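Action item from last week, closing it out:
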Amino acid sequence: MFKAYQDIFTPPGSKLFSAAAFVARMPISMTAIGIVTMLSQVRGGYGLAGAIAAVFALATALIAPQLSRLVDRMGQSKILLPAAAVSATAIGALLLCSRFGAPDWTLFVCALFAGCMPSMPAMVRARWTELYRGSPKLHTAFSFESVVDEICFIIGPILSVGLSVTVFPEAGPLTAIILLLIGVTLFTMQKSSEPAIRPQVEGRSGSVIRLGSIRMLAFTFVAVGIIFGSVDVVTVAFAQYQGYTVGASYVLAVYATGSCLAGLIFGLLKIKLPLQRQFMIAVALMTLTLLPLLLVNNMVNLAITVFFSGLTVAPTMIITMGLIEKIVPEHQLTEGMTWATTGLGIGVASGSSAAGWVIDNIGVQTGFAVAVIAGTFALVIALLGYKILFAAFKPSPAIKH
């Protein structure tokens, strides 16, 4: 059944760069939730913790496309390691400021510079596109990487929250730093699979965010990111309210498990519907599966609810990356894919901050309404931008056998 996934690893070096990317993207799932867990213990309350995590996520979302644009112009090996070093240094400074009681503003400054973390999901997908552009294997490769993303979100929160709760508060983010540096170093060492630097096309050198279809996808993903950010923060607070703080990591792992399973199955399907319609259906299902969050009253109910909601996540990501691959020029592919995750990051930042404020000022249970409202906005944006997306879609190139 899964032979299609085995076949994508035929090219030399494909296993190595995918494995390195797995390690390098682990900090994405560990850092923000680790910051929330750490600061909620050290400083107390979720307002400050959510705000710091939001600044980190927002900075990452805004800086990552610029890094990816440099990557498209100069290559992955020249940009990724310096960027990762800046991010790791800033996160380390954040941990020290937290530990030694530095003023709150120093935490915000550190979180800002920590946003230099590169978008590793975009980098690894760019390598797969280099190998399989125009081939059905690209859909399988994108599906595989979406599953790997979700595996990271299964392991990452458990590892980060678990370490911060059971060892010392800074242990989760500290581990993220180590994994970031190791993973990016190993990834950039795989030079044989690095995408070629393509010459900039005259008149097409501006940012791809100028394309209406890319803006529509990015804005939709802002709303999707609010869902993720709010669910993360509210889950931690809800678990603490229930007297089982470490249980938050298990609930978030269940969320990611649902997405992982859906991604594995989706990657094997041959769906004939146009990608634009698939995107609309996926966003609609994501919105509908969030509604039961309003009725959650214990950890078991929460785990069941987020599992079914998670079933919509990976397919939505796979479809979106497939759309972007067909919309943007080849020489701007990495930047295009990063803008999708940028929208996601901005949403995560907003969702974390909004959820933290709601928890502190209204109540834990009300925090889930943030995710439901965000899901509704995602559907509205997708509906309003459907014609733009349909007009921008270009036909697939001839299939390679």
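Closing note: The longest helix spans residues 137-166.
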